[in-house]
Specification:
By secondary structure, this protein is α/β, with parallel strands linked by helices. It folds into 2 domains: 10-237, Rossmann fold (3-Layer(aba) Sandwich); 245-460, P-loop containing nucleotide triphosphate hydrolases (Rossmann fold). The chain has helices spanning 10-21, 35-49, 60-73, 89-97, 110-119, 147-156, 178-186, 195-202, 218-226, 255-274, 284-294, 312-324, 336-345, 356-363, 399-407, 411-416, 434-444, 448-460; strands spanning 24-29, 53-58, 82-85, 102-106, 126-132, 162-167, 203-205, 212-214, 230-233, 245-246, 249-251, 296-298, 306-308, 329-332, 349-351, 369-372, 389-392, 424-430. The protein is globular.
Length: 461
């Protein structure tokens, strides 16, 4: 591939200028707006005035492929050599020894990196850090936080001069996602020195359910405090983009499957009513209800044995594929049982995996049906050339993953690839089940437990 001249768009000019002017900042830009190339341009420019090494934190696939591939695309970045610190321990150690201006590393390997440097008395050499998909740092706490974020926190404000947070979804599950990410920018100056002080200032906690609810003034005040270091860019402000066309496909459970579902639902509600604090986090029956809505449920604790209860979602998926009239269809699934049933029902279907050839084959039109799990096929995956149709077979609570999986073939990426076609999303929804609650959660961002409690009351009535 011959490197091409990089000519930033107006929206990328905003990102670049913001990052150059603010040593520690956040760029909240919609998916597909060129955050990676913009950040690389910033790092390249800073090398001229602030020589030093750069470290990019990212999900595994993004660290291994997306950032190195992006650097190779542009001739203006030819001075940047990216060496990923991924793979086996031996491969990571070899990467650390390589002479490179920039390293990438996946979040899960951060504790290893910090420990390896300490044990071998190696200095921390990265003066700039870019946190790609910075919501991975949202769980940071000064005490008892996530190990990955805690590891990098040790050097964030002592060894790192510049820090850039990149994400298109800074608060997918609510305003409380912002404290951990922002701490890496200002050590708590804007949102509170501790997570506890952050909660006390802008949230109330339900004494029975322990759920945090933002105060009426919380959003306005939090946004005001972050305005100087955070820049937000919406694709619709720069491009003529239409929203994805969402066409829910409703199915009704057969009588026997409906009875099985109702029995499980009653037990789920009983657990919620008996111990509200654990209503969602510890209520595995909620997942059982989602499994039953899809048509199969696990019957052991190992997650390997399951029984099929109905095939109405498979029938609906067949109708969607027939309606596509030969156009490739991307299918988002949640459980391994869903994947096995989809591959069996549609022999031409393939599973999306870590092999780069799978992504290339999809984009080349060689895969008519591809089953993709949101957690493995979200960040850093470009599937827009392969198609514009997404069927959601199984639902999940995570709003960020839902948005990411849509954007793999979403309007911005379709536009950037030169495809003048809409993005079609077909959620397959089992009527009168937890599926509908998950849909409501994604549409309104309401708390999971509130939805479950409301459903329980509605059933009782």
């Amino acid at each position: 591939m011959t490197p091409a001249p990089f000519i930033p768009g107006p929206h990328q000019d905003v990102m670049i200028e913001h990052a150059l002017d603010h040593p520690r900042c956040a760029i909240w830009a919609g998916m597909g707006m060129g955050k990676t190339s913009s950040a690389l341009t910033v790092l390249n420019m800073l090398q001229l005035v602030e020589p030093g090494c750069d470290l990019v934190l990212a999900p595994l696939r993004v660290a291994r492929s997306t950032w190195p591939n992006e650097a190779e695309k542009w001739d203006t970045l030819r001075n940047i050599e990216i060496v990923p610190i991924v793979g086996t321990e031996a491969e990571r150690i070899a990467a650390l020894k390589a002479d490179a201006s920039t390293n990438t590393i996946n979040y899960d390997n951060l504790p290893w990196l910090i420990e390896h440097l300490a044990v071998n008395k190696m200095p921390w050499r990265w003066s700039r850090v870019v946190s790609d998909e910075s919501t991975r740092l949202k769980g940071f706490r000064l005490r008892n936080g996530g190990q990955r974020a805690a590891a990098i926190a040790r050097v964030a404000h002592t060894r790192v001069r510049r820090w850039i947070n990149l994400t298109g979804t800074p608060s997918p599950n609510g305003l409380n996602d912002l404290w951990g990410q922002t701490w890496f920018l200002d050590a708590g100056v804007r949102l509170g020195r501790t997570y506890t002080s952050f909660k006390q200032r802008w949230f109330t906690e339900d004494r029975y359910t322990m759920e945090m609810r933002p105060a009426p003034f919380a959003r306005e005040q939090i946004e005001d405090r972050l305005r100087d270091i955070c820049v937000t860019l919406d694709p619709k402000d720069y491009f003529d983009i239409k929203d994805p066309i969402v066409r829910p496909v409703y199915v009704d459970l057969p009588a026997k499957a409906r009875f099985q579902y109702r029995e499980m639902e009653k037990k789920m509600f009983a657990e919620i009513e008996g111990n509200e604090i654990e209503a969602f986090n510890a209520a595995a029956r909620t997942m059982k209800c989602l499994q039953l809505a899809n048509g199969a449920a696990y019957i052991d604790d190992t997650g390997t044995k399951w029984v099929e209860t109905h095939d109405v979602k498979l029938q609906a998926l067949e109708s969607i594929i027939e309606e596509a009239a030969g156009m490739p269809v991307l299918v988002a699934y949640q459980f391994k049982s869903d994947l096995a049933r989809i591959l069996k029902a549609f022999p031409k279907a393939r599973q999306f995996d870590a092999d780069p050839k799978t992504e290339r084959d999809w984009n080349a039109g060689k895969i008519p049906i591809m089953a993709l799990h949101p957690a493995s096929g979200g960040h850093g995956v470009n599937l827009q050339d392969g198609g514009n149709i997404l069927a959601i077979f199984g639902h999940w609570w995570n709003l960020e993953e839902y948005m990411q999986v849509i954007e793999r073939i979403g309007p911005v990426r379709q536009m950037q690839a030169g495809h003048n076609r809409p993005t079609l999303v077909y959620p397959i929804v089992a009527r009168d089940t937890v599926d509908e609650l998950v849909m409501a959660r994604r549409e309104t961002k309401r708390e999971v437990q509130d939805l479950l409690l409301e459903a329980m009351k509605r059933r009782a009535a």
